[in-house]
Write a structure and sequence with these properties.
Length: 331
């Protein structure tokens, strides 16, 4: 009798709203999922909790847990519930953020907290905060000035030259490092998926941790970058898809992106509500020649999902393409 083939191992790296979209699509596929989540967010409820109790910001982790959980919808709705502004002390806080913060104190760190919560929430796969400590995102802009803090960097609305991360408690000058489980997952993966998400504030904060960047460059897995559909104000204005890859490669000093998924379906301008989605600017322009010069395999098709007067990735179409890539690599 033949041995049952093991599930393909897929590692998805990112943060923000793009990561859960892909994870929800992968959730019911026959794959072993590991989500590696950024810990450099300092806005909203996450930022307030971080400032009060120096916990790793829990917001992105909360959304990833929900995307991979098999709990009934009511329990997930409670976990996601955000207190109203009239509640004063609890205003704006999501219950899940408070639970993650409490478990982090109980376990002396976010990593153990998330592993316990993963069991409680019946997570299918693995959720790994990229480090066990809060990180600060730093940026140097093209005009030579620098800023620290994700929300400060985004609010500056200036072209970014490069980003790097430092521990929030940087008194001893140590370099941040990912937990061993993250590195092991990357090195043993069949496929690494990066994005979609904010290039400088959701994706690069993970890759700028030295042992993560090194592992992503050394892994034998296919590294697939899901390029954003729209540019982001103050982050990626006027950048082409080839520019996105060029920035990723330059930050790691290596052409590590093997494949890019590019949406070619036009976004109807009269459909977009740019007041509601005020961080978005215009569709990412295509530079297929620039991508080929970087030895990137280009998969360009209709990945667009129009929803709530915004432009998003259709998770079913994206995941179908990811499954095709896995199938081809296993044949």
């Amino acid at each position: 009798m033949k041995n049952k083939r093991r599930q393909p191992r897929v590692v998805v790296i990112g943060g923000g709203t793009g990561l859960p979209v892909i994870l929800r699509g992968l959730h019911n596929k026959n794959v072993d999922i590991t989500a590696v989540v950024t810990v450099a967010d300092d806005g909203g409820s996450s930022g307030i909790l971080r400032n009060y109790i120096n916990v790793v910001p829990p917001g992105d982790i909360r959304n990833v847990l929900v995307a991979l959980s098999d709990l009934p919808q009511l329990e997930l709705d409670v976990f996601q519930y955000r207190f109203e502004s009239s509640d004063k002390f609890l205003a704006g806080h999501a219950i899940g953020n408070l639970i993650i913060a409490a478990l982090s104190e109980m376990h002396s760190g976010i990593f153990g907290a998330v592993q316990e919560l993963s069991q409680m929430m019946n997570i299918q796969g693995h959720v790994y905060p990229v480090t066990n400590e809060p990180l600060v995102l730093n940026a140097e802009f093209k005009d030579g000035t620098t800023l620290s803090g994700e929300s400060e960097i985004t609010a500056a609305h200036k072209p970014i030259e490069r980003v790097w991360v430092t521990p929030s408690d940087d008194q001893d000058g140590h370099q941040p490092a990912a937990v061993p489980e993250v590195i092991e997952a990357i090195m043993n993966a069949d496929q690494i998926v990066i994005g979609p998400g904010s290039l400088f504030t959701s994706i690069l904060p993970n890759l700028m941790i030295e042992n993560v960047g090194r592992a992503v460059c050394q892994t034998k897995a296919e590294v697939i970058y899901i390029c954003n559909i729209m540019t982001q104000k103050g982050e990626t204005d006027n950048l082409s898809d080839a520019d996105h890859v060029r920035i990723l490669n330059r930050h790691l000093g290596h052409n590590f992106v093997n494949t890019i998924l590019v949406n070619t379906e036009p976004v109807p301008e009269d459909y977009m509500d740019f007041q509601r989605w005020n961080e978005l600017s215009k569709p990412v322009r295509h530079d297929f020649q620039g991508l080929r010069k970087q030895d990137v395999c280009v998969i360009s098709t209709n990945f667009l999902k129009l929803q709530d007067n915004g432009a998003f990735h259709d998770s079913e179409k994206v995941v179908e393409e990811l499954m095709n890539r896995l199938q081809q690599s296993h044949d």
